[in-house]
Write a structure and sequence with these properties.
The relative contact order is 0.15. Helices cover 72% and strands 0% of the residues. The chain is mainly α and 177 residues long. The termini are far apart. Helix 2 (16-24) crosses helix 6, helix 5 crosses helix 6 (91-100) and helix 6 runs antiparallel to helix 7.
Length: 177
């Protein structure tokens, strides 16, 4: 089995050692981007029955932008606002670990089966959130899992607010009749 697939499987199994490994491996950035793209494509394919073929392109682009934004927010929150005394990380370390935390998202491809999109999206979302908490805990050298949970939740809420603002600014939402 090649190293990339092995890393994705280990990330999906929630192995903390994998997140330490990719945190330290500066050469893993391409793999991390690959995981995010594959996970996004899986989500797009899984949502074809709802959004059609355009969902693949929109989902991939949105996921990549979201990954960068959430990683940046996590970096600021985790290293500047809520660090532990031993916290030491750079943006690249977070991009790599958070990228691999998208590995469980590959199951979203199963959402293409009519009637399964919602449940598969929910399972994948929870699984990816748990993986992200582990990734953040490892990348930021936290002893407290709860601190990692807090950083992820705060970053997620801010990211959602930003997305809502951008969506509203470009004319999203209900249109008057």
């Amino acid at each position: 089995m090649n190293a990339f697939v092995n890393r994705m499987l280990r990330a999906a199994k929630l192995e903390p050692a994998l997140y330490e490994e990719v945190e330290a491996d500066k050469g893993a950035m391409g793999q991390a981007i690959g995981v995010v793209v594959l996970s996004s494509l899986a989500a797009g394919i899984g949502a074809i029955s709802i959004h059609g073929g355009a969902g693949i392109l929109i989902g991939t682009i949105t996921a990549l932008i979201g990954w960068f934004v959430w990683a940046f927010l996590t970096y600021i929150i985790g290293t500047k606002l809520l660090p532990e005394p031993q916290t030491e990380a750079d943006y690249g370390q977070l991009l790599r670990t958070i990228g691999f935390s998208s590995s469980p998202g590959l199951i979203r491809v199963v959402g293409i089966v009519p009637g399964l999109t919602g449940i598969i999206s929910l399972v994948a979302g929870v699984w990816m959130l748990v993986a992200m908490v582990i990734a953040v805990r490892q990348a930021l050298d936290y002893e407290s899992t709860w601190r990692a949970v807090g950083v992820c939740v705060i970053g997620w809420v801010i990211q959602i607010l930003i997305i809502m603002l951008v969506y509203a600014a470009v004319g999203g939402g209900p249109q008057p009749a």
